[in-house]
Amino acid sequence: MLRPFEIHQPESVEAASALVGRYGDDAAFYAGGTELLLVMKEGLVRYRHLVDLKTIPALGALDYDAASGLLRIGGTVTHRALERHPTVRERFPIVAEVERLVANVRVRNVGTIGGNLCFAEPHADPGTLFLTFDAEVELVGTRGARTVPIGAFFTGAYETARQPDEVLTAVRLREGGPQTRWAYMKFGIHERPTLGVAVALTLDAERRGIEDVRIAVGCVGPVPARVPAAEALLRGAPLAEADGPLERAAQVAAEGADAVDDLHGSAEYKVEMVKVFMRRAFRAAAARFQ
Amino acid sequence: MEAQGASARPVVEISLTVNGRPHTLAVEPRETLLDLLRMRLGLTGAKLSCDVQVCGACTVLVDGLPVSACTYLAYEARGRQVLTIEGLADGEGLHPLQQAFIDHAAFQCGYCTPGMILAAKALLDEIPRPTTDEIKHYLRGNICRCTGYKKILEAVLAAAETMASRHG
Amino acid sequence: MAEALRVVGRPVPRLDGFEKVTGRARYTVDLVVPGMAHGAILRSPVPRARILAIDASRAERMPGVVAVLTAADLRDIDPYYGQLVRDRPLIAIDEVRYAGEPVAAVAALDPATAQEALERIEVAYDELPPVLDLDAALAGGAPRVHARRPAGAPPEAEGNICFHARVARGDPEAALAGAAHTFEHTFVFPMVYHYAMEPHAVVAAADGPAVTVWTSAQHPFLVRADLARMFGRALEQVRVVVPYVGGGFGSKSYTKLEPLAVALARKAGRPVRVALSVAEACLTTRRHAARVVLRTGVDRDGRLVARVATSWLDTGAYADNGPRVTARAARRVLGGYRCPHVRSDAYAVYTNTVPAGSFRAIGAPQTIWACEVQMDLIAQALGLDPVEFRARNLGRRGEALLDGERPLDADLEAGLRRVAAAIGWGHPASPRTGRGLAVGITDAGAEPVASAIVRLHADGSASVHESSTELGQGVRTVLAQIAAEALALPVERVGVVASDTAGTPYDRSTGASRSTTVMGLAVQAACQEVRAQLAEAAAAALGAGAASLCFEAGRIRAPDGREIAYGDAVRAFFGGPGGELIGRGYVRGGGRWAPPPLFWEVGWGGAEVAVDDETGQVRVARYASLADVGIAVNPPLAEGQDEGAAMMGLGHTLFEALRYEAGQLQNGNLVDYRVPLADDLPALETGLVEDHNGPGAHGVKGMGEGAINPVAPAVTTALARACGVVVTELPLTPERVWRALRRARAQQAVSAG
Predict the structure, then answer these.
(1) Does residue A280 come out as left (phi exceeding 0), alpha (psi in the -120 to 50 range) or beta?
(2) Is-cis flag, bond preceding C595, omega within 30?
(3) CA angle, A236 as apex, A231 and A237 as ends, to 5°?
(4) Which residues contact C43 (CB under 8 A, 6 or more apart)?
(5) Taking CB atoms and an 8 Å limit, are A105 and B10 in contact across chains?
(6) Residue C86 to residue C153: CA distance in whole angstroms
(7) Measuring CA to CA, which residue among A105, A140, A155, A103 is closest to residue A125?
(8) What CATH superfamily classification does C31-128+194-281 receive?
């Protein structure tokens, strides 16, 4: 049962930020509410003021700049909008593909990308994927605007680098070049994913050698994270001989996974699944060059 | 309500359209769309079940999109068109999905049925001739504990055919 | 000899179709009773404690609060209820026995106020060490969940044993000692949750001598009896009305929330609505977790010679229907096999967890899973084909497997071969896929006591009054078909009025697959009585002999060709513009129903599964279900029952398990408790065997539960054939299967090295 609260409808990010600045711990930003309202119903948190971000038109924008290849996703853009947006489907097909598998259609219709990132529920997909884009998170607060690399954004389960008065105004993704392919694999039998692995694989011009690879693992630990040591093992390897490095990289990624025991399974099992799905996601990305 | 502190509780005025009829109501921000429909408008077709957006029993369409009315503030429906199961039929003339659910015995206890039919409507509005896999994917967020889903899929496929032939 | 049937056996649309697809169907949660207050329940945060004090004064003073109910309000009534063992107080008295047990309840003018008032009730607990699982409960010196012997406790109840049932024949220990081969296996089945999508709901009014409850109950007359006894009322003073029910599956059988709601309404002096959340429904009832140990002896020819079964069922903090579940488990674990020497002991064991009660095919999925997986293991060990091994041991039609038991009324072997063929048994499977089969029989039907009234109106339409609860199984449609057949009326001319103890006649219960069979006979008998009266009326009107008349489609024809419509005959009889003919029918115990059970419910299943070796994930690609139904009164409805049961079975096979930690339920919500979804549907095929072999109208017998039983063993044995690993604990989660695979690989490595 939701407790009484007041709802504020700011027209600008500055106004929104000021409201949360004024009410402090009594206030929270509110976008889709698909996560926030659940914990409020449970009584796990209580806010007397919700500051609606959807009344700020700019936050709902989804812009693609062909010249720079930059996609700017406004904080209140819904999962479903990303899933169905023609430009996203054409230029960032992996984003549409991952979004299509988030929760269910009702949650995707209402839940926002900003809310998803800021809530930082460990069992979620977009953050993991965005790590392989080296995405940038735009934050605007009472003390001004800043940009945080997504790798520095998630700081713990349900915790981020965002200050309480800061609004996530947008997340920026840069398009991959013609030699980059993505794959995302999620696993689990529960409503939320038990594990997610994203791989962005960039080959050289001949498509023989691995020029770059970005790998992120999500859901198994408190935060989604890149696995640089694993990436380093693969970088520079010939694709045809990637099996050995991939095996070692998977091992390294598994060792580095900060897996925890929970209802989804034991840490031991999750670590093993990191290996399995890293191999699979890498091979799926490689297969997309064919 | 005679309840305690009602006057102290914040209230916002909203206008919305439900099943084609306009309403202007003062709502508490914490009021869910499901409570508004069920308790204020007497539209009890949408059901509360899981209360965590998993089961779909509370599915209604807002501007054509399915939402979980249990976790969707009534405030969000301001200025929007809400369709509930009560507004789907044209009098006693059933929507093809409703008829197909009857023809294919696609419900048993019926508790999930209003939400299931509305979710299926949104699907067919988006993909008029879905494959079985597309139906399974779209309806994975609507739980039915009675039927085992098989007859629901058959009903949705049949309704799609009926609707396509009408438009054809 | 097949009768010519017009309505029975046809895919008649459901009577509740229009209401259910348009949102007009009213469930208990939808009801608004004038003056109604809203209830909320304060639940124990700890699994076991003495209640030292409850201070509700702050809640009582809250504006909008009408009443707060605690144990102090129960002194003038008998607050205890329960099937056989009356161990459960309607609200905790002095002690709490599980985390989630109701401790106090509030009635307020609106739901939010009721919820907020709960926080102002202070309860002082003195925590006691709980017993949280079977091992803890059975350990020497374990604390007792019920320190005092509850009313109705059987003599053998001792320590935390709530109930013991035994089925025995011959000398199994001697036979085991002399058997050519002996096998012992242990099987573990989890606690599972029904998730009927409508959580329990009650509106109760008790502000005078009359008590009225509208409730989501499966068995309104048993609820009525409990309420009358507890609150000191005559049966006629208690009215139980059951609107549409949003799924039961046993979760709403017997008495659940009704006594609490009545006590709260009595204190409030006005009607009170108590509607649980799903989280609270998870704290109300569940299926028994079980551990089953099977010792089986087989002779040189692959015939069973002895079986010793011991089943422990975790019944939670209160008996609920645990004793009956336990009695059924004791029989059901033996399956449909011929075995000269058997002993099966089943124990219901108290623990400080959510009480367990009825759930679709009580005591069967746990035990049939154990029985059938072991049959496969034995076949494998003996190098026999599992179909042939089973066929060699299955009882034949007409054979009584135990003394004093109804002979088998179905051809178990034929059904097994049919599902085997349906899943391609004997043909090569793809790599990492496997096929498995199972057959389960259950002694079904419950007590055969039911009454019906049929009224033939002056326009020739008819109403059937009966009290089988419409849970979604389609009982009203099926009874209307049986009535239409018996009355020679089009089914559109028959309505069903149901489930109001003040206006519809007695039915013992809706469960155990009994309604079509038992109530169907009562309805048919009532129709025959109406028809006899109608014949007299028509004979007088037409001047013909009653025996010579022909009934067809609402008209009666004399041998000379003259006709009269039913309605005209009714009016002619009464000599006025109106009137009605009333027939009654009943079914009672004994006689035709001896020996028990009323009939055998039989379900066969075959599965084809694929396993992902690296992750342990099991995918059921194909499932064939077959049920022995006598006759399908309404084929799509019968198929729907089996499809639903098979998918529900996939749930406890693959995903479902309530998880406890330190006495707290960890996953009592739909985010963490996973039930089957649309995209889990395999290629699912259902078949119905129609041998007219049932005791009901037109040879019908009960169905709808039997299909859940073969799922887990069929999938488990298919998995074993896919990857060589037998998993003896459910559910088959990826991690559990992965661990089993890893263990098997390690053992292989050891033996190879």
Answers:
(1) alpha
(2) yes
(3) 90
(4) C99, C100, C101, C102, C103, C280, C283
(5) no
(6) 8
(7) A103
(8) Aldehyde oxidase/xanthine dehydrogenase, a/b hammerhead (3.90.1170.50)
Q: Which residues of A touch B10 (CB under 8 A)?
A: 4-7
What confidence score (pLDDT) does residue C207 get?
A: 86
Question: Cα(C582)–Cα(C611) distance, rounded to whole angstroms?
Answer: 60
Q: In chain B, positions 13-72, which contact chain C (CB-CB < 8 Å)?
A: 38, 43-52, 54-55, 57
**HSE-up of residue A168 (Cα within 13 Å, Cβ side):** 32
Give A242's Cβ-side CA count (13 Å radius): 29
Question: What subunits touch chain C, counting only 3 or more CB pairs under 8 A?
Answer: A, B
| Sign for the pseudo-dihedral over CA of A119, A122, A128, A134 | positive
Please tell me the distance in Å from B76's CA to the nearest CA on chain A: 9
All structural domains of chain A, each given as residue ranges with its CATH number in brackets, are 6-52 (3.30.43.10), 59-174 (3.30.465.10), 180-287 (3.30.390.50)
Q: Which domains does chain B have, with CATH numbers?
A: 6-87 (3.10.20.30), 96-167 (1.10.150.120)
Interface contact flag, B53 A33, Cβ < 8 Å: no
Give contacts of C 271-300 with B, CB under 8 A.
277-279
Q: Boundaries of CATH 3.30.365.10 in chain C?
A: 17-24+447-593
Of the partner residues C654, C671, C734, the one whose CB lies closest to the CB of residue A192: C671
- What burial class does residue C338 get, using C-beta atoms within 10 Å of its C-beta: 0-12 exposed, 13-18 middle, 19+ buried? middle
* B71/A38 Cβ within 8 A: yes
- Is C227 within 8 Å of C2 (Cβ atoms)? no
Q: What sign results for the dihedral spanned by CA atoms C155, C156, C161, C162? A: negative
Q: What percent of chain C has pLDDT over 70?
A: 99
With CB atoms and an 8 Å threshold, state whether A263 touches C667. Answer: yes
Whether the per-residue pLDDT at A224 is higher than 60: the answer is yes
Q: Return the SS3 of C550.
A: strand
Q: Is the complex ipTM higher than 0.90?
A: yes
Options C198, C372, C529, C705, the catalytic residue: C705
Nearest residue, CB atoms, C197 vs list B55, B137, B153: B55
pLDDT tens by residue, C33-86: 999 999 999 999 999 999 999 999 999 999 999 999 999 999 999 999 998 999
Q: What share of chain C is helix, strand, coil (3-state, %, to 5)?
A: 30, 25, 40
Domain C17-24+447-593: CATH architecture, name and number where available: 2-Layer Sandwich (3.30)
Query: B56: which chain A residues are within 8 Å (Cβ-Cβ)?
Result: 104, 106
Q: CA C653, CA C648: separation in Å to the nearest integer?
A: 9
